[in-house]
Records
---
Amino acid sequence: MADRETDNRPKVTLAEAAGLLGLPVDAVLSLSSSGYLEGSGDPASPTFPLVDVKAFLARNADNGSGNFLDALEREGADPQVLLDALDGKSEEMARRAFDIFATVFPESTTWSISEQAKFIEQAKARFEAILAVTGQGAEVDEALVGDLEDVGAAAAWAGSPLPQLLVVLRISRDLVVQTAVELAEDRGRHWGLALSLLLTRVLPAMDRLTDSLAQGYWAAIIGKEEEERNRYENVVERASDGVYEVDLDGLVQYANPSLALILGRSLDALDGAILDDVLVPLDRSVSIEELSRVPGGASHRQEVAIARPDGVRRVLDISTMARHEEGEVVGYQGIVRDITTAHDLEADKNEFLALVTFDLRNPLTTILGLGATLETHAEDIPGDRIRRMGSSIRRHAERISRLADDLYDLSRLEAHSLLLSLRPVDLAQVIDDALGSVDDPTGVDVRVRPGTLVLVDPRRLEQIFANLIENGLHHGAAPVIVDVESVDETTVEVSVLDHGPGVPAALEATLFSRVRTLSRSNRDRSRGTGLGLSLVRGLAEAMGGRVWYEHRVGVGGCFRLSLALPKRRPAETSTITLP
């Protein structure tokens, strides 16, 4: 043997031998380890005498005189027998697979007994599937390939790491080969070729199965990333909040449509603009630079009031966070939320509470003072003065009562739960009753004749006139004239005219708005909460009427109130005569 190895006979490499024999490299190595081919050099990559390879090929040719395959059939060394024997080893291979897996992933040793049993059961099913595929030959059924791609995709969506899956498949592959070799050695040397033929089925099948799993996995990963990217883009593009990205120099790299709408600018104007130039704070002491240069890459949140190019004021809540790539800060992302309405409502609420408190404090202080005076000096006070003090206490108590009623009725109007009792009443009488709750009715001139009937809730109409008259006395000037302006078949219009400066044109549009009335910076708190006009509109509309402000040149403020007339039967012929 030594002489043969030291001669100058041509030799072929492992790959060349596999090509000549038409077998996989692993199969040739199995033939070499079984003694059917004698190699030299590195056992993992031996070389073979060319003449030996040709001799082996000739012996196993279809017409070869020493056909070894016929000998295999005579001696029962059938690859299918070896395959069946492997199938009986499935559970044993599954248990060995778990032991090997535990050495690669030590955390699996902490699994519970049920988790280990589940792994072994899955491994057994995997081995049985591998052997079933091997029994079909080198070509793997396309349906199975598709199933494995689905398995890989499912693993990707479940978040299972691909290396772990590939390790499991590699362990399965190696265990099948190792167990097949052990079975062949137990049966004798003549089973070596059966082993080689079996491996020509197992190894390509396993490689194709692994490729199918990996392809399904990566296809799902790419699809998942694409779906997430599309979902992210859709959410950002359609978000009601503004979203932007700036680079380290503060230049806007991206802005969504909502940001352009909030800032009152076009998307083209925002692209490439400096963030400091598109977010202009009303308070110049506020630094917008912090939003584009967050120290240390941390997040930052800031509430800032800005002025848009069209002059509109907006209050914005801006959250900024660093954007990283490969561990480095490359820019910043920001979310801009328009909180103008919420901010103003909070300010209005605080103003409302302050005004209501003021409106309650004044009459309460007066009542407490007069009550203390009566309690202490009642014997020394003349009777006429006591009557004046009692009248003052009554008026201030009615003022508190009216404020409470206004607040209650406003809440009922907003909840659409105000109860009304509509019936025909005398308009002049209702106005007279309303004067009883006015602080100083001497400055009021009522020109409505008795007998004018309207279809209203008398208590609510009394509130309307009390508020309109007091509004004219407090915010305008006496005399306040209440008069019937016009009458038709279904309605009567009444005006309440004062002789003050009138309402500025800029405030007319929001005159009946409770929110805007309360938030005016030039309000005189000593003149009340300003809830009266809001309540007047709500009550008038609830009774089927309406109220509006009419600008009249040369006179004071004029409010007009339209009320429904009672329905008359045809026989009735009474009319209302204007003064």
---
Amino acid sequence: MKNNTTTAATSSMRQLADLLPFFNGLKSRYALGALLLLITNGSALLVPWLLKRAVEQLSHPRSDGFSAGDYALMIALLAVAYCLVRIGSRTVMLHGARQVEFRVREALFARLLQLDQSFFSRERTGDLLSRFSNDLTNIRMLAGFGAMSILNTVIIYGAALWLMLLISPLLTLAALASLPVMVLTVQAVSGKIFTLSREAQEELATVSNHAEEAFSAAVLIKSYCREGEFSKRFNDAAERCLNKNLKLARLRGFIIPVMALATGAGTLAVLFVGGRQVIQGVMTLGDFVAFSGYLALLVWPTMVLGWILTLFQRGGASMARINELLTARSAVHEMDEPFRTAPLNQGVMFKNLTFSYAERPVLQEISFEVRAGERIGITGPVGSGKSTLLQLIPRLLPVKDGMLFLDGRDINQLHLGDLRDMIGYLPQEATLFSRSIAENIRYGGEGDCRKSAELAGLAPDLDSFSQGLETLIGERGVTLSGGQRQRVALARAMVRNPALLLLDDPLAAVDAGNEDEILNALSAAWQGKTVLMVSHRLSAFRDCHRVLVLDEGRIVEQGTAAELLQQGGRYAELARRQGTGGVKT
């Protein structure tokens, strides 16, 4: 148990050390906060001394000093100064905590933008959102109230104990007799609080993930009458989260009474020993009042130690979760001095390309060349690696050196921004933002939105929209049909007139009536462009120079549509089933 506690405490401190860089530039703010806390506590520490003087003046009036009324006025003025300076100290330090939270949030978001697609495929959206909200709240509390409470406790303990020792070492020893109980209690529960805090945050992330899934799939859940199942899953996760937090609350609830008990025991010891000394004349009543006042100042910092411990352990657990993102590394990385690309002149070459997901091979020994201006169609059964092949070209997934070349240069040597600037990519699932149609198209880059919308076959639909291109399309394009969403995404891929077009099943959500219209528009738009298009509809390849057929991650057939039909292989079988030869007529 002791080893576990020590390990957890050490882990917590190690995680909190990673938070220190986010305080850079804020040292002056925290120094000012510490100075204001020093003044605040100085004002509080003066009050018992003034009370001592007032009591002594009442007991033994002197004509050459201040009256008891004067001391009362001083205490009142100190109380006002205490309140004003305390407000200033809290404002300064809590604003600093907000700055720390802001910096961590920025660093998290910047890191997420750098991570590759494989990272997001294995992480849960709800868990990521939980780290941005719940874990960051714990970090802010730690950097604000936690840091302020620690500074306040150190100042008040150091000054009060020194003054108490000056008055009576014996009474000070009596007051601190219960300190070992507090130390042992903190040591016993510290590691458990860290562990429970981490588990509670993990369970809260699960709850957030269930909520996010339910919101995203609301229509699907209702369509299949699965409300009860999703409700049960959510309730189970929420109950687990509640149980973890209740355990944490019970542990915290145990610490605070122990601290209060220890403080009360010290106070009783002071009353007993100090009272006897006053009666015996060993100590003056004024000294006893002052000592009791300083002891009273220690009551709250002592009781709040349990809360501070919880803050630090929760903050350490949250920082551990945040560090998992901050230290995550993308498998797609850029060279220190990448080659700046020029317009595509030679084309793209695949050379014995192999790719695997978690040791599961997806593409194996893929070799072919795409000349500049050539249009290549890619088809094959589900899971044959078609979409993965396209994602490797803009390096959305990592590719090994010596397997993929652009204009004769290894793609890993190219500047990533330049590479992606020359590519127009249409993913298999069209992702739209809750903005206008024009804003969604312009997300692909600068260009003529209306022209690209016309090329994508969206022009007839624009007339039916209330505000044309400026029509808001709702969350994820919910107000659009599947075909309309696909065409908006297609317009986005073409808006900046890219040299290389990667189209992943562009006609998947388009009905047969619009297929010819879109293909006719595309045939004019992609003249002179290099195009790789994945599709299950062989009719989409009518303007392609060559077609590749993939199966189980390998190229099993390639050639023109006419050549593949004559071979009578898999392409011919697909054409027979679809009733098309995939040849332009």
